[in-house]
Design brief:
Elements lengths: L2 H15 L5 E7 L6 H8 L2 H4 L2 E7 L7 H5 L5 E5 L2 H8 L4 E10 L6 E6 H6 L12 E4 L5 H12 L8 E4 L5 H6 L5 E5 L2 H7 L3 E6 H4 L3 E9 H6 L1 H19 L2 E2 L2 E2 L4 H11 L5 H6 L13 H13 L9 H4 L3 H10 L5
Parallel strand pairs: 1-2, 1-3, 6-7, 6-8
Antiparallel strand pairs: 3-10, 4-10, 5-8, 5-9, 11-12
């Protein structure tokens, strides 16, 4: 055989047998414990096993990801099913809600309504009706814990306007309760666990009691990623669902106390500002649907409240914001969850 032909043939065979280059995907996260599935899929190699080179970029908040997702600078991101997200979708920003990221199944209400302990001991608070006139620490308008508080108030025949809300970063809730600058709060773990441990507050109700299976946070896809790279989007979802199921293996009796807990805590300690294993053992973790499906009824319920408050501008069909096809495709291959 002519040596040049042989060499050319060998190069061709070598190239055809070489593994395909990993497809790069940039995903946004917020360094929060509810981003656990993203960090787990990254650290345990689930993304790499799908042939994906995933770069996790941390943002200050989920709201900061909306513009990069709409511009295609991110393929996926950790999202809050908030009024801000719905307004972006209504303006034509191409983002899709594709999977559950944090929810409140029974026993896993990571959002809690707190009242100062001195109000409980001193008699200012005896029943839900006594919430009237209280000053509540919140974190932002049009987010899931505002719907939680509204539902609790309605159960006591009160309205959202019967309390005063003050927005501040979630980590500041603990100090605000301690220094008595607020009477109560709708806080997200680890704040409630720290405030109770410090003797400054009492948990009145948890999100899972007020709004069982409340949809709190979601996984988002940029529309270009979903439509122009559907194979990669399906691969990403398979890895994500595997990570969600690994996370569920860490849950037991409302705590991070399951068989996988130590490994999940190690991953979260490396990826989030919470480093103390004691705190991870103390908090109530959020749940995540092990089959990844979004609770659309919960989304619709919160959306109606945001619209009632005048926070959602323009008409929005929820079906235009949600795409469950990637989860369903992943489940066809992975099968239903088996603990």
């Amino acid at each position: 055989m002519n040596i040049r032909i042989f060499v050319g043939f060998a190069v061709l065979v070598s190239a055809s047998c070489a593994p395909a280059a990993a497809q790069t995907i940039t995903v946004g996260a917020t360094s929060s414990t509810s981003d656990a599935p993203i960090y787990i899929a990254d650290r345990k190699g689930y993304f790499r096993a799908e042939g994906l080179d995933v770069k996790v970029v941390n943002f200050r908040s989920a709201a900061d990801m909306v513009a990069p997702l709409g511009a295609g600078q991110l393929e996926a991101g950790a999202g809050s099913a908030s009024a801000g997200l719905y307004n972006a979708v209504a303006r034509g920003i191409a983002i899709k809600i594709v999977a559950d990221k944090a929810s409140s199944p029974p026993g896993y209400g990571g959002t809690k309504i707190l009242v100062r302990k001195d109000h409980v001991e001193g008699g200012r608070y005896r029943s839900l009706a006594d919430l009237k006139g209280m000053k509540f620490a919140m974190n932002a308008p049009g987010v899931s814990n505002t719907s939680t508080l509204n539902t609790l108030l309605r159960s006591a025949r009160l309205t959202y306007s019967d309390v005063e809300t003050i927005d501040m970063p979630l980590p500041d809730h603990v100090a605000a309760l301690k220094n008595k600058s607020v009477d109560a709060s709708a806080s997200v773990e680890p704040g409630p666990a720290l405030a109770v441990r410090g003797g400054d507050a009492v948990v009145i109700k948890s999100d899972d009691e007020i709004l069982p299976n409340h949809q709190i946070a979601v996984l988002l896809y940029a529309e270009d990623f979903a439509h122009k790279r559907p194979d990669d989007a399906r691969k990403f979802m398979r890895a994500y669902i595997r990570a969600v199921r690994f996370y569920n293996g860490a849950l037991s009796n409302g705590r991070l106390d399951g068989p996988n807990a130590d490994e999940v805590i190690t991953i979260l300690s490396a990826a989030t500002p919470i480093k103390s294993r004691e705190i991870y053992r103390l908090i109530t973790p959020t749940g995540v649907n092990p089959d990844g499906r979004v609770n659309k009824a919960s989304l619709a319920y919160d959306l109606a409240f945001y619209a009632e408050q005048g926070l959602v501008k323009g008409a929005l069909n929820l079906d235009d914001a949600v795409d469950g096809s990637f989860v369903e495709a992943a489940l066809e291959e992975l099968g239903p969850y088996r603990p």
